[in-house]
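Subject: Interface between my chains keeps coming out wrong

I've been trying for a while to get a sensible model of this assembly. When I model each chain on its own everything looks fine, but I need the whole thing in one frame so I can look at the contacts. Pasting all components below, labels as-is. Any help appreciated, I'm running out of ideas.
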Amino acid sequence: MLVRYRALVESLVTRELKARYRGSVLGFLWSFVNPLLLLLTYTLVFTVILPNRQPDIQPFFLFLFCGILPWTWFQASLAESAGVLLASANLIKKVLFPAEVLPTVCVLANLAHFLLGLPILLLFLAWQGRLAWTALLLPLPILVQLVLTLGMALFLSALTVHFRDIQNILHHALHLWFFATPVIYSYAAIAEGTPLRQALRLNPMTHVIVTYQQMLFHGHVDHWRGLFLALLVGMLAFAAGAFLFDRLRDTLPEEV
Amino acid sequence: MTKPVIVAQGVTKLYRRFAHKNQLRTLKSALLTGSVLAGLRPEETFTALEDVSFEVPQGSTFAVIGENGSGKSTLLKLVAGITRPTRGSLRVQGRVSALIELGAGFHPEISGRENVAINAMMLGLSKKELERSYDAIVDFAELRDFIDAPVKTYSSGMYMRLGFAVAIHVDPDVLLIDEVLAVGDEAFTRKCLDKIAELRRRGKTILFVTHSLGLVEKMCDEVLWLCHGRTRGRGEAKRVVDEYLTYVAGGEEALLRSRAASLSAQAEAAPASDAPADEGAPGGYRAGRWGGREVEIRTVRLLDARGRERHVFVPGETLTLSLSVCAAAPVSDFVFGIGLFAADGTCVYGTNTEIEDFAARRLAGEAEVRLTLEGLRLVEGTYLVDLAAHKRDGTPYDYLRGLHSFRVKSRVKDVGIYRPQHRWSFSGGAELEPPPERPELEIEQGDTRGAQPRQRG
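Reply #2:
Try treating it as a single job with all components included. I did that and got this:
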């Protein structure tokens, strides 16, 4: 289905990107400015207010950047797709239209933002002399994250139509999830065997983010097992999301 | 014989009707009670369509008519594939384009051009097909000058035009139209109809949902009449439309009857001195009943030529107003009068026995007074009736104002109040085709709701 509607998805993603910043002064530049501002905030907090002195993740702002960029993609995709079907109710009710296109477009549009932010991150890395060949492996974690995010987006978008509470819960769940993922702290610094480490290992995003950090910041990758596990979880999530979406598809026009 | 493009067999659609408790169902409670999917099973349902079957042959134009809430739009959504039948089967061959809501999915921030592209793709057009028909779409919508402006700056007419233009250029095999022709100005509606006629000529199949019965008779080969989700009639357009109109008239008849009953009851209950002060003022027409009741109007009946009680008439029919009156003590000073009023309070006609120089002698006990209006030359509308018995100086015995009414229904939608008997004639270079032979409606006697309408050929 998604393959057949590739052209539509493409134009919708383009539209999404164009429409988002239309009318603002900076326009497309916001794709770059947004992550920079976010980075600035966190850097301020963790270098001035609560300084992080762990030696293996200095300069801290760069470490932070490596995690926060993909996380933003993940978080924004889910937050948007939860409401996307309700927001496009008139389409679903009045036009014969494959509804899964809508959450997919959310995920892909945010992927585009992520990819637009990536060159800035690479520039920073190059400036700090940290750009390594491992950056060439980036498509792997991106793919894993894409599968995971798509699956969850399908799942959440369809379910939110029936249980609108999700939109409210999700906001907080994502906040919690952010702190449960080693973005603002180092995974390696948490001792092996502790309950916290065990808990973090269950989080597929941990492995995705750690892989990014290794490829970009540390310049060596040994988290393959974790990434593979995340891929499995992602595929599972995708299967579950596609199944649920298909199962609820017929109810969508009546419920939105 | 062409093969059918749309085949519906025993199509039934149930909608879930939300009980209050279900509306409050939250994710939490669904999780607590177990399976999420179990919580989504329909419990209280509403039957939008029941056992509807029909076939639409290739290249024909098919209309679905019915009152509001009869399931027309539900049927259209089913044919469009937006929702699926709960029971029964529905098969549609070829590309379907549904004009259910025009411009659904337009994004206000981006230009008309980009919206056309996205909308066309949503409706199933490929990129190549779009390139081919893009110019035709823009020209049809007459938006060449505005196509690069964001859609949010469009007027609602421009918006609709663009939506219609895209939907019609998808080159569908089956076109579904849901009451969308009411958009745009006269000229654009004309253009839409021409375009639809062109599609008909090109052998496309069209399924209409509309309240515009004139359009149905003019354009459609076959009509399906839905009533409360069931098939009430199906077949040749003119016949079904006639049946439907008869049914609607019957419904109005029943409505007026119950209204007359309740109004008289209200007036009975009201005190006798309740005379309106603004009597006779235009627009100040207020229903009521007053008078000393020395002479009482007991019952009022509206009769047709055959003496049957009726509330809906067609122009030219004979209407008889029949009053049973009763004078408790004999009186010799009395006048009977009637007045007909249009719904806005305009007096259509008024007369009484005094004006017409009848000399009242004596009225005692029970009596019946009848006034027969031969050839009711009124145009379509609702008319109120005043009935009175009063003294020669105007002091009322019993005055019934606007408590009775009747409706005139006509196929001809001429305007005004009065329809003189008339005839057109043309000579010289004027060539006009005479209107098709169309009998006036036959009004069903009694409550036709629920009864089978008369079949006429």
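Reply #3:
Confirming on my end. Residues 79 and 171 of chain A are 7 Å apart (CA to CA).
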